[in-house]
Fold L-rhamnose isomerase.
Amino acid sequence: MTDVKQVLRTQRIETPSWGYANSGTRFKVFPQQGVPRDPYEKVADAATVHRFTGVAPTVALHIPWDTVDDYQKLASYAREVGVGLGTINSNVFQDPDYMLGSVTHPDPRVRRKATDHLLACVDIMDATGSRDLKLWFSDGTNYPGQDDITARQDRLAAALSEVYDRLGSEQRMLLEYKFFEPAFYLTDVPDWGTAFSHCLRLGERAQVVIDTGHHAPGTNIEFIVAVLLRAGKLGGFDFNSRFYADDDLMVGAADPFGLFRIMHEIVQAGVVGPAGGIAFMLDQCHNIEPKIPAMIRSVMNVQEATAKALLVDRAALRQAQQAGDVLGANAALMDAYNTDVRPLLAELRSEDGLDPDPVAAYHRSGYADQIRADRADGQAAGWGA
Ligand code: LRH
Ligand code: MN
Ligand code: MN
């Protein structure tokens, strides 16, 4: 049990700035009281999540949603409140110029503009001290024949390599894929294979990021995890959960067993902690639920899945696998999955000076009342603001 706790102590989960802001669906954004009005307040909320969970020490930024005049100032504010600035997420999916694509657009002027944004994100990383640049492209087409598939791949490769060459020696590029939306016929980076082939050509510091909500229903995500890990090409996760498509609900809410199966591969590869080089990020929108408790709950869900994966009796599992004992091997996994790890995690938190129940501690803290009062005036920052 001490071993399990020691590994859990090394775990780091990054929360997304946009998960603290107002968000919604394309039908409606329901504003909440006390949400951040600017990136500083998002960072303050992320620090609050870290204060109660102890395992969420960084917050990811999304540019331009989190544009500030001075990124070093934001980074030092973050340090003051107890967190660091993490992954920089680029955004080439909202400017009207990108209707037909960003870095794959047929017009070289639009491609230049999109690539310049990605390069500007690396400048921001230099100022914030961020390691990772996360790239997601909404690029694609809606109709067969609309554009040339191969030419678009070539344009994408050219932009990626320009940005890759701009990275510092400690910086990485994480390429995210998604099978559809907003494009409905063809997406230029639809799957892990496409992302993997681009990363392979770029070099060691280009890696694939798996957003758990970005697959067709029924996709075996842990298989993708295992294949990418084996190739040394798994850079990180955007964790969330989904019932239908890219729902961005709380990780572990829809399919806790799927999350466990992913974490089992991570544990087997020995890459739970930061030394493993995998960025464990959340990418969620809390549209109808209070945002900070939702983030705390999500962090705890990842911890619970990890604890269960750490409890797998791997010697018994291996023995059963080698003996061809199908049911025995399956039971070794299921026994761990069916273990209630909440007491173990509560104990771990108490040992580390945290409240054993982070959600209850947050509610008792008065932070929610405080932000409701402090942020009563001004315009709330929102998804896309
Ligand atoms: C795209 C995505 C990507 C974006 C985020 C807001 O669906 O997962 O990671 O940056 O949503
Ligand atoms: Mn994502
Ligand atoms: Mn998504």
Summary: Residues 2-374 form a domain with the TIM Barrel fold (CATH 3.20.20.150). The chain has 14 helices and ten strands. Residues 101 and 139 are 4 Å apart (CA to CA). Strands lie at 15-16, 58-62, 84-89, 132-136, 140-141, 172-176, 186-187, 206-211, 234-239, 279-282.
